[in-house]
Amino acid sequence: MVAHRTRFPVRFNELDPYDHVNHAVYVTWLEVGRVVALDDIGLGLDTLKTDGYQFVVTAIDVRFRRAATAGDVVEVVTGIATFGRASTVWRQRIERGDDVLVTADVTVGVTNAAGRPTKPPVHVMEGLRALALEDQTAT
To answer: Which domain holds residue 73?
Structure first.
């Protein structure tokens, strides 16, 4: 797998007074990328909840490189770089055409319904493997 891609336009309400996207919005876009990727592999948050599991962000390292502005169309590129016993590291970037705007590594833990870390079942891990990055150094 190269990576999952989620594309959308910058919306006016996402701009700050300087007419570029507010830094907090990029974190929301990263979340959208992960949620859409999970939906597309059949592991939507509703399905996970029904099965008694939650994915929770435990760490996020975001690097801002360039600003998005009104009228831009951005794409969130999402893949999983590493797999642990009860967590994964998602490698993501936000692009505008050939420009990389943001890179991020997001550590996502798996918990049971009570919020305790747990090893996910085999079918969840197999599903997540569909998002495994071939080139785990590309951010």
So the answer is: 4-129
Per the rule left: phi > 0, alpha: psi between -120 and 50, beta: everything else, 58 is alpha
Burial class (CB in 10 A: 0-12, 13-18, 19+), 34: buried
Beta bridge partners of 64: 102
Residue 56 lies in a domain: yes
CA distances from 82 to 53, 62, 101 (A): 19, 17, 23
How many domains is the chain partitioned into structurally? Answer: 1
Give residue-wise pLDDT tens across range 98-108. 999 999 999 99
* Residue range 80-89: mean pLDDT, rounded: 95
Which H/E stretch holds residue 46? helix 45-50
In-domain check, residue 17: yes
The CATH number linked to 104 is: 3.10.129.10
- Contact (CB, 8 A) for 75 and 94: yes
63 token code pair? 């690097």
Q: How far apart are CA 18 and CA 5, in angstroms?
A: 28
Average pLDDT across the chain, whole number:
93
Q: What are the structure tokens assigned to 114, written together?
A: 């009570």
